[in-house]
Every structure is written in C-alpha cells, then in structure tokens.
Amino acid sequence: IQDRYQSVLIAFFAALSKNSAVIFEDRNFRPYENLIQANVSSKDLKYLLSNVALVDSERMAQRNVTGSVRDVDGKKLLFPYYDGDLIKDTVKQTINSLSAATETMYDRIYVLEVQNGTTTQGLARNTSILLQGFGFDVLSSVNADRNDYEKTVIINHIGNEEVAKTLGDFIQCDNIITDEVLPDSAGYEVDTNVDFTIILGKDFDGRYVR
C-alpha cells in the first residue's frame, strides 16, 4: 500500500510539471485549487505547487521507512529499525547517487534474491526487509544450498558493477562475484529472474558483514 501512495504522489508531481503552463494561469488555477484540501492561503498553495512542479519526478527514488509501530500516549508511532541508522544510510546513499555523474541506481528497481547460508532462523527474511527499505525489490528470501557459508557473497548476474558495489557498501560486503565467471561446480542456486543474489554467511550479523 505504501508503494502505491508513493507512486501516486510521484505521478502527481509529474502531471504538475507537464501541465504547469496551464494549471498555474490565474484563470485556471481555481478549479484545481478546489480539489485540494490545504491549511494555507490560495496564494501560498499556488506558490507551493508551482515550486513542486519544478521537481524532476523521474529522478525521485521511492523509499520505505521500516520499523515497528508502538502505542505511545494513545498514539501510534513508528520507531525505525536500528535507531534510525538505516534511514541515515539510505539518505546518504541516495544523495550520493543523485550527485553522481551517472544515474544507474535510478534506471529501474533492481531485483534481489536473499539466501540464508547459516543456521540462524529468519536471517534472510529480516535482511530482505532491510534491503526493501533501501529501495531494492526482493523477489524471494530462501535457504541456501547449505548452511555453513563462512563468508557472505553477492552474485552479480547483470554485470552492473556500480549497483553491485552500492549493494555491497550497504551491508559492508566486498565479496562480489560476477555470474559469468562462476565455475560450474560452484554450487550456487540462483533464480534467473533476479539481478543480484546475496548468500548470507556467518560473518553477517543481521545488518553488516563483520
């Protein structure tokens, strides 16, 4: 549901930008204004929306804030996981990607498969939640072919080294293998519909590779 809300808002920004020449004419703005509930004056609303129309919606990245909802003084509050460090990392990486010369991270949403290569129950599922909060789409979280992986490994199926490094930086994993160079006897089981596969090893503490 949250993804749908974000998609609708981005579509709204795009429509404002595309039709700004018509919408913000004095004679045309009133009908649009009547469709919006706001606690600001008509003049301020027009000023606000005209600035929103300048936003490049195609470069906006959708991010979900993951955490636990708790009742505090009769109100439901969302407490982000890891005391907000996950949000800080996400914002930092998003800013870096926006300011970079390339826009690889925003070409599309990249699909992951997370495999649990340890005996820790729920590790793949919990890690999937973290990665979804970072903007990746997790197709599946499953057990690996065995549960005694010492080191976490990221398998790059599409040859995109930049995104692979971004993914690795997020969990502090530099053990990245490109799919094309894997030997037939490697034993990795992967889904061909995913861009990257992460096999979690014993060196992964639930957030970072140590």
UniProtKB/TrEMBL annotation:
Domain LytR/CpsA/Psr regulator C-terminal: 112-204
InterPro entries in the cross-refs: LytR/CpsA/Psr_C
UniProt protein name: LytR C-terminal domain-containing protein
Organism: Candidatus Treponema excrementipullorum
